[in-house]
Amino acid sequence: MKKALPVLLCLYACFLQGQTTKFPVTGIPVERFGRSLQNAWAGGINAPQFFQVDLNNDGLNDLFVFDRGSNKVLTFLNDGSHSDTAFHYAPEYEAVFPVMTQWAALADYNRDGIPDLFTFQMGETDNHGNAVPVGIKVYKGSRVAGNLHYDVVKYCLYYFDAPYTVNILPNGLGQPAIVDVNGDGDLDILTVGVYGTAVEYYENQTVEQGLSPDSMIFSQVTSCWGNFYVGNSFLQVDLNVSCKGGTGQGTGPQGPRHTGAALSAFDNQNDHDIDLLLSGAHVDCLALLNNTGSSSYANIGWVDTLWPHCDIPAHMPYFPAVYQVDADNDGFKDMLVAPIFNAPAMDVNNVLLYHYVTGDTCSYQYSGNDSFLVSSMIDFGTDSKAVFFDFNGDGLMDIVAGNYYYYNATVLGTSQLGLYQNVGTNTQPRYQLVTTDYCNLSQYSLASGTMGYNPAFGDLDGDGKPDMLVGDANGYLSFF
């Protein structure tokens, strides 16, 4: 959702404290149906991408979240507890990271123990004024006086026709996997090609050429890693096929798809090779592609089209993606499933947690219906607009928030007003959710398809009672 509430509450807190500077508000207590919201003021997330990094240099892996829906970074500190609630919103670390778009990934390419930052770049000029094509940009992570710091250092290049090099071009609709594919200790790149049918493998040449760990020169080993093609929008995977044409952008037997795919690479069977979790646009499930080859020569031998088949399969409408995070500090990477696009897609309770379970034939098991991290936030869906209003006349300012919509699987979405009541005081506010459909405005949205409710309050007819105006995305004002 749009981050209206943190800004609004920041200004409110400054007014209460008599200060002239703004600061993030995270400590005002909020309850929803009797449950205290640990990360109430984080603002909600629509298309989150999750990675771990030690933000405050205390030895614990904290949480970095890049929300593709708003190109916004959110940061959470790890308290070290063995539970799914170990992460607490800490917005003071968000400024550490640069402006990004499309996707982000944290991975330690130079093996100094500090994760580096990989992201998509739209085409720009480097520090010397030279034009850099669309592709991948890398920021090197370091610590300055103990504080995390990132500087742009590299555009990921691979040998095209020596001595010429070009930038690696990932499919902009998905997300690449940055992982040690061949087991030599440096980071390689797997990405779906621009045609969206096959996975291209770019091998890091740092070890092969005896270069320093800070070097990043890639060679494209194959344009159809694993010998498979994705045939259509429903994750139909064709196995045992060879590359078409050898140009690095084979279209596959089904022709080009022009859609993206999100990749998550891991060793599923602990057999020292890389397997993939694959998803695509217009798909609501995940496919596990099991590598029956080796670390030096991948061959996808079988596919689980509803991962995990041994438990409740992951289901996330439109375009899910998978991220590996130790969510409960037990030393094992769990799986988080979330939409990679922000519309149309689940925009509340939209992060599924699959715990890694040791000693069980089913390694990844669904944690339950509660959404990881997001369930601890105030979240009014997509593009919220919040105002203060004393709805019950008790002298305390409550919060009414409109939205563009809540995702609805049967219609595009439903616009509503949410209401949080101040049950504290003017100087020590405390909020409780009253309803997510204040004044039952969803009935008008459903009846007319109207989106984008934006409320305002005041006595418009001079009778001493507050009235309500609601603007919408069609440009109309409705008077209540």
Explain what this protein looks like in three dimensions.
This protein has 480 residues and is mainly beta. It contains 2 helices and 37 strands. The strands form 10 sheets. A 6-stranded mixed beta sheet has the order 2-1-34-33-30-29, covered by helices on one side. It has a 6-stranded mixed beta sheet with strand order 14-13-18-17-16-15, with no helix packed on it. The protein has a 4-stranded antiparallel beta sheet with strand order 3-4-5-6, with no helix packed on it. The two termini are 26 Å apart.
Query: Helix fraction?
Result: under 10%
Radius of gyration: 24 Å
- The outline comes out as globular
Tally of individual helices: 2
Number of strands: 37
Strand count, sense and closure of the main sheet?
A: 6 strands, mixed
Structural class: mainly beta
How far apart the termini lie comes to 26 Å
Oligomer type: single chain
| Major β-sheet strand ordering | 2-1-34-33-30-29
- Classify the beta-strand content into a percent band: 35-45%
On the 0 to 100 scale, the average pLDDT is 88
Low-pLDDT regions: 10-21, 245-254
Question: How are the secondary structure elements laid out?
Answer:
Layout: H1 4-17, E1 30-32, E2 35-36, E3 48-53, E4 62-67, E5 72-78, E6 87-89, E7 101-107, E8 116-121, E9 124-125, E10 131-132, E11 135-144, E12 147-155, E13 157-161, E14 164-167, E15 177-179, E16 188-192, E17 199-204, E18 217-222, E19 228-230, E20 237-239, E21 261-266, E22 275-280, E23 287-291, E24 300-304, E25 320-325, E26 334-339, E27 352-356, E28 364-366, E29 385-389, E30 398-402, E31 406-407, E32 413-414, E33 417-422, E34 431-435, H2 442-448, E35 454-458, E36 467-471, E37 477-479
Parallel strand pairs: 1-34, 13-18
Antiparallel strand pairs: 1-2, 3-4, 4-5, 5-6, 7-8, 8-11, 9-10, 11-12, 13-14, 15-16, 16-17, 17-18, 19-20, 21-22, 22-23, 23-24, 25-26, 26-27, 27-28, 29-30, 30-33, 31-32, 33-34, 35-36, 36-37
